[in-house]
């Protein structure tokens, strides 16, 4: 049974800053090309004097919680996946961000990996299967052999993959390569990450805001009258 989400008051208990401002800082950092220091300066105009390191800790603390709450309203993606990897620098070394979108450009899933090999590709596809609850009818890959091998071997591990067709097309994968830009453009101003786990959480926040921007959440049933971003976030997190 899924663990019950904590009440918002409990989630923000002990914080000496209004939760709306904490949510705003996390949301803006993950969405816009801002540094922690930029946000700290901007908050001064709202009467909040906070260290940039405090905002960093808020991102690490609350992104996983925000992911859980938004996940309740996530729409399933289509069943034709485009899978690709892009590069992210952590402590001066390149690591790999596995990502997939469907034929309409909706995000399927993502996973940060220290390696780019068969095991990493399988781990990403297993995660995507858990997220979507169903295997794709087709997966389009680039020419990297490890990813093709992963897709070939998965049906032997899980019958859910038995009807998935594997394709290789640079043209069809232009869609995922274009989608990388929406994420990478936000990562650029961060100037690299110092810690792999922190990078994974921060990227999860960036991906969450990227999906919200693409309208991948069915929040209509909440009947939110005020359609400002702050009101929508408050309604989703409190529901």
UniProtKB/TrEMBL annotation:
The keyword Nucleus does not apply. It holds the Pfam family DDE_Tnp_IS240. Keywords: DNA recombination, DNA-binding, Transposition. Transmembrane segments: none annotated. SUPFAM superfamilies: Ribonuclease H-like. InterPro entries: DDE_dom (IPR032874), IS_Transposase (IPR052183), RNaseH-like_sf (IPR012337), Transpos_IS6 (IPR047930). Residues 79-215 form the DDE domain. The keyword DNA-binding applies. It comes from the Bacteria. Coiled coil: none annotated. This is IS6 family transposase. The lineage of its organism: Bacteria, Pseudomonadati, Pseudomonadota, Betaproteobacteria, Burkholderiales.
């Amino acid at each position: 049974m899924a663990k019950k989400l904590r009440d918002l008051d409990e989630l923000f208990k002990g914080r000496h800053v209004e939760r709306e401002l904490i949510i705003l800082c996390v949301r803006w950092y993950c969405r816009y090309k801002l540094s922690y220091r930029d946000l700290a300066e901007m908050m001064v105009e709202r009467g909040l004097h906070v260290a940039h390191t405090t905002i960093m800790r808020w991102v690490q603390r609350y992104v996983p919680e925000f992911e859980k709450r938004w996940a309740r309203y996530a729409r399933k993606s289509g069943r034709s996946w485009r899978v690709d990897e892009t590069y992210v620098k952590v402590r001066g070394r390149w690591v790999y961000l596995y990502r997939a979108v469907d034929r309409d450009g909706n995000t399927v899933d993502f996973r940060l990996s220290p390696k780019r090999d068969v095991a990493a590709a399988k781990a990403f596809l297993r995660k995507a299967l858990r997220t979507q609850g169903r295997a794709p009818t087709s997966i389009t890959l680039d020419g990297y052999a490890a990813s093709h091998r992963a897709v070939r071997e998965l049906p032997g591990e899980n019958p859910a993959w038995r009807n998935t067709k594997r394709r290789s097309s640079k043209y069809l994968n232009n869609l995922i390569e274009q989608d990388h830009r929406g994420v990478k453009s936000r990562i650029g101003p961060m100037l690299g990450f110092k810690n792999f786990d922190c990078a994974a959480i921060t990227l999860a926040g960036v991906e969450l805001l990227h999906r919200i921007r693409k309208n991948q959440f069915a929040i209509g049933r909440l009947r939110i009258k005020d359609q400002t971003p702050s009101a929508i976030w408050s309604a989703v997190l409190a529901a």
